[in-house]
């Protein structure tokens, strides 16, 4: 066989072996990232619903709602949860302040902005961030008034007889985290 042909075949073989090793390394890194992401899932989180108004969201099955990738609030942002009033005392930091300024404070339409409250990756209930500027009556789901950016808490209010805020999964999660008051 020609020496040049043999050298070319060897170079191509080495190149293919090197590429397959690089693919394996990338695959390991992706698997590691995915597994790491599963471990960092918050115990408690509030996610905004994507591209839907509040009335439409509360009519849908909670498991069919498309949520934003990043939660608005997690257990890492909470110093305590007062169960009787469903008041969440916030630990303010620059990252949380930026998220709230960009998406919540004075950014809520008069029809509200729906959210899903989750515990340990499980969707618990649908609520809405609400504005006092709205002339609409509240949607009948739990609401968080969002106009007060100088406050260090959110209060989840509800006017329904069947109060979904009192879900034991929320209670047990907050108790386990040592944040229940």
Description:
This protein has helices at 3-39, 54-59, 94-103, 168-177, and strands at 44-48, 73-74, 78-82, 87-90, 113-119, 122-130, 143-145, 153-157. By secondary structure, it is an alpha+beta fold. It has 2 domains: 1-40; 41-177, no CATH class. An 8-stranded mixed sheet has the order 2-1-5-6-7-8-4-3. The chain is elongated and about 85 Å long. Residues 30-38 have low confidence and may be disordered.
What's the quick description here?
This protein is an alpha+beta fold and 181 residues long. Helices cover 35% and strands 22% of the residues.
Keywords:
181 residues, alpha+beta, 2 domains, eight-stranded mixed β-sheet, 4 helices, 35% helix, elongated
SSE diagram, text form:
Layout: H1 3-39, E1 44-48, H2 54-59, E2 73-74, E3 78-82, E4 87-90, H3 94-103, E5 113-119, E6 122-130, E7 143-145, E8 153-157, H4 168-177
Report the sheet with the most strands, covering strand number, pairing sense and barrel closure.
8 strands, mixed
Indicate the mean pLDDT: 85
Helical content band: 25-40%
Order of helices and strands: HEHEEEHEEEEH
Spatial order of the strands forming the largest sheet: 2-1-5-6-7-8-4-3
State which percent range the strand residues make up: 15-25%
Structural class by sheet pairing and helices: alpha+beta
User: How many β-strands, per DSSP?
Assistant: 8
């Amino acid at each position: 066989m020609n020496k040049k042909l043999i050298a070319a075949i060897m170079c191509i073989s080495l190149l293919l072996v090197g590429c397959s090793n690089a693919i394996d390394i990338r695959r390991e890194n992706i698997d590691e990232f995915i597994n790491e992401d599963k471990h960092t899932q918050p115990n408690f989180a509030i996610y905004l619903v994507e591209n839907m108004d509040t009335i439409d969201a509360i009519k849908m099955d909670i498991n069919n709602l498309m949520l934003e990738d990043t939660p608005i609030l997690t257990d890492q942002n909470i110093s305590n949860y007062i169960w009787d009033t469903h008041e969440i005392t916030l630990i303010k930091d620059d990252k949380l302040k930026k998220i709230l300024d960009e998406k919540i404070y004075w950014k809520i339409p008069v029809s509200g902005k729906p959210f899903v409250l989750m515990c340990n990756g499980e969707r618990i209930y649908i609520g809405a961030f609400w504005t006092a500027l709205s002339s609409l009556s509240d949607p009948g789901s739990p609401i968080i008034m969002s106009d007060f950016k100088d406050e260090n808490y959110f209060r989840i209010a509800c006017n329904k007889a069947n109060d979904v805020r009192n879900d034991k999964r929320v209670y047990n999660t907050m108790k386990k985290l040592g944040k229940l008051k």
